Fold this sequence. Notes:
By secondary structure, the chain is of the alpha+beta class. It has helices at residues 2-24, 74-81, 92-102, 126-138, 144-162, 165-178, 191-195, 199-209, 225-236, 246-249, 285-303, 308-313, 346-358, 368-385, 392-402, 405-417, 420-430, 444-450; strands spanning 32-36, 42-47, 53-60, 105-110, 115-122, 215-221, 262-267, 275-281, 319-326, 334-341, 437-442. The strands form 2 sheets. The protein has a 6-stranded mixed β-sheet with strand order 1-2-6-3-5-4, sandwiched between helices. Strands 7-11-8-10-9 form a 5-stranded mixed β-sheet. Strand 9 and strand 10 form a beta hairpin. Helix 11 packs across helix 14 (368-385). The model is unreliable at 1-23 (pLDDT under 50).
Amino acid sequence: MTLKITKILTMTAVGMLCALYAVAQPRLPEGYFYKKLPNGLDVVIIENSKVPLSTIEIAVKNGAYTEGPEYSGLSHLFEHMFFKANKDYPTQEKFLKRTQELGAIWNGTTGNERVNYYFTVGKDSLDGGLKLINASIRFPIYREEDMKKERPVVDGEFQRNESSPGFQLYYDISKNLWGDLITRKMPIGIHEVINTATPGKMIIIKNKYYFPNNSLLIICGDVKHEAAFKKVEDIFGDWANSGFDPLVKYPIPAFKPVEKSVAFVKEMSIAQSPLMWFGWQGPAYMTDSASTIAADVYTTVLGLNSSKLQQALVDKGLASSANLSYSTGRYPGMISLIVSPNPTKVKECYDEVQKQMSQWGKADYYTDEQLTDAKAILLRQHSRELEKPSSLPSQLSFNWCSTSFNYYTDLTDNYQKVTRVDIAKYMNTYIVGKQVVSGIILTPEANKVANVASFFVAK
């Protein structure tokens, strides 16, 4: 009797798991095929035969948001070390020689919530490309001589950013928006941490995040999905699951709301053209995915030449550009209004910006026609994005890390469904009447003439 009950329970459990797996199958666009390997690796094959190439991308849920101050910038350094020595190619010279043999175009990027690596190869080199990326992600060799060469390269990127007035302003805005969690929004890192990084720290990052159950592998190109899945299983199937969810075991701290509005003036000798930046804490996919969609639509509305913002600032000569932006993230992201004021009319430009922002919550700030035009623009942008097969994996992996497959698949359709009510909810929740961090950067001479501190103050 006990055996029979156990058998029934077991069969029920199996049925439940099968049903759950069926429900969990993501929606993907036509020509996209999905499979989760037993070790937890998500795999997507995109059949696209426009050109006889294949792009292989692997993305990991890692990046700035996983970094406290002691590791700030090391996800980026780790990305650079990916293209060095590994078990199959134990020196970088051998690694590079192999990429040349494959005719590969390759690179990687590090953001707040994703690190990704890709190789584009001829369709006949798919097997070789998969084996190379497998060796790099699973069996890296962190040689001290390689790190000694690469630390200055990564730090050099940071130094180039620091020479930009725009980055300097962005950094100070970020410090005020995110407080002591700024390193979790700044992939570029901290000089001292980058320059003292050790092979041991690379191994720590690998042992925290680089597992199949925290990764997505995408193949896009002139391939057949059945054969491609078979190749992936043969090569990556024995990659061991971590046995834990890295983002549960190493949770991301909650970002605290901005307590009060801040305004600051920053002088920099190379800031030959003044720049204003207004930043708000925006929505997170985890808590308000609808507003992330409304944000994209409203941003597009304000970017129209016919918008009140453009007409009041650019058309009247008060600014050369004025752009509202928001980058979707799993965690709260920054909403930014960036304005390049006319150097001779800085105060007039600032006053007009304040006037425009005070009207953002009003129903008549944009027209139904402008809303329709914005949706049409987003639709055309999506069509253009589909024209380059090698870019499709990156689009998908970004959303896998920061949103979901379903969000990505439905995004274009959901743009068309955005209403005035949706936009009003987004604006009233995150911008209108909310705490804002404002900054302006300009030369000391320009600041002396404009006396910016007399009017550029927290509202």
